[in-house]
Amino acid sequence: MEIEIVGQVKCPECGNIVPKGRYCIFCRADITNAPPVITKKEPEEKEKKEMSLEERLELLEEELNKLKKDIDVLKRAIGLI
Ligand SMILES: [Zn+2]
Question: What is the pLDDT of residue 38?
Answer without folding.
Answer: 73
